[in-house]
Design brief:
Layout (H helix, E strand, L loop, with lengths): L5 E5 L13 H4 L6 H8 L1 H14 L3 H9 L4 E6 L18 H13 L3 E6 L19 H19 L5 E5 L9 E2 L2 E2 L5 H19 L4 E5 L19 E7 L11 H19 L5 E6 L12 H18 L5 E4 L13 H4 L5 H4 L1
Parallel strand pairs: 1-2, 1-10, 2-3, 3-4, 4-7, 7-8, 8-9, 9-10
Antiparallel strand pairs: 5-6
Helix pairs in contact: 2-3, 6-7, 8-9
Length: about 350
């Protein structure tokens, strides 16, 4: 296993659709997510849209550019129906395992490592995020997801570029607020799934791939969890966004406070005893006041990004969100947000 820290980008919106990444795919239908898109345009048209999108949005040239910018890894979310008819009942969705194969080929050609993330979001079913066909509760599809993780681990265990596998993309843990339980999946069920997923990946691929566990927005919930010697190469993943924070980010002091918040979050997560990576982060700041100019915001976001990179220096990996968006969104599209950073700051 390469001991260098991974500094990379997400490939969000390629194999798992996101309307903010590729709004053009959704514009004519009025849909905001994939299930709604299917209902709006019908299965035949949906298949045409998806096949064209998969073939055109990310290509080999993107991997060449990613490596050329100084990154050494990509994080690729794959949908639960990645195997199509060879996996759990896909319903109207179509598989994309051939494109995952291509991603490995393209990554290995330029020396990039690949971290796969299973694109499910347990606890967010009510939002339609990562919703598994015909299942509204995590308990109904949990075993199928363990099987998908096992199949992915087995398929790529011999690939040079295969670095690790994340067992979910963005789960939401249930918490108690006073006498009320919030939406989400219980920590008990999530921990059970993580243990099952670990065993399935190890049985399929051995001890080398890193098994990555999302912290489910609860950095304090994992102390001593799977940190025992019987578990090997296990990381915790924290997603650190600040664009919705209620904070003043109109000057360097405000930016510094946001970065300090990231550092405190990571400090809590590291008390788990597990190496903690940052699977998603962006350069987007909280909404500015009316006096800030676009040029001033861009300058502050550059400072923010540099400070964040510094805050992540002890992490085994970080992945910017994301490599590309059709609208070249400032703060989110690495081709724009990181364009002025020197290679040595990234590698």
């Amino acid at each position: 296993m390469d001991s260098r820290a991974l500094h990379g980008v997400n490939l969000t919106g390629w194999l798992t659709l996101r309307s903010w990444v590729t709004p053009g795919l959704f514009a004519d239908s009025g849909a905001l997510d994939e299930p709604t898109l299917i209902r709006a345009v019908g299965e035949r048209r949906y298949h045409e849209i998806i096949e064209q999108h998969h073939a055109s949005f990310i290509k080999q040239a993107d991997f060449v550019q990613i490596a050329g910018r100084g990154f050494n890894a990509v994080r690729l979310a794959v949908p639960w129906y990645v195997f199509g008819e060879d996996g759990p009942e896909p319903g109207p969705y179509i598989g994309c395992i051939d494109y995952v194969d291509k991603a490995f080929e393209w990554a290995e050609d330029v020396g990039l490592k690949v971290v796969l993330a299973l694109g499910i979001a347990p606890g967010r079913e009510a939002e339609g995020s990562g919703l598994v066909h015909d299942h509204e509760r995590f308990s109904e599809y949990r075993q199928d997801m363990v099987a998908v993780l096992s199949a992915l681990a087995d398929r790529y265990k011999m690939r040079e570029g295969f670095y690790g596998l994340e067992v979910a993309d963005d789960p939401l843990a249930q918490t108690r607020r006073g006498l009320v339980l919030t939406d989400g999946v219980s920590l008990h069920d999530l921990r059970g799934y993580y243990r099952e997923a670990y065993e399935a990946i190890r049985d399929a691929a051995g001890p080398d791939p890193v098994v990555i566990l999302p912290d489910a927005d609860q950095p304090r919930a994992w102390r001593a969890f799977m940190a025992q010697s019987r578990y090997q190469n296990v990381w915790l993943d924290s997603h650190l966004y600040h664009y919705t924070d209620n904070a003043d980010s109109t000057g360097p002091l405000g930016v510094r406070r946001l970065v300090e918040a990231s550092s405190r979050y990571l400090a809590e997560a590291r008390k788990s005893g597990l190496p903690t990576m940052v699977g998603k982060w962006s350069g987007s700041l909280p909404y500015p006041d009316s006096l800030m100019t676009p040029e001033g915001r861009i300058a502050l976001e550059r400072v923010f990004i540099a400070e964040q990179i510094g805050a992540f220096r002890d992490c085994p990996a970080w992945f910017f969100q994301t490599w590309k968006t059709n609208g070249r969104l400032v703060g989110w599209d690495a081709r724009v947000a990181l364009a002025t950073f020197e290679r040595r700051m990234l590698d």
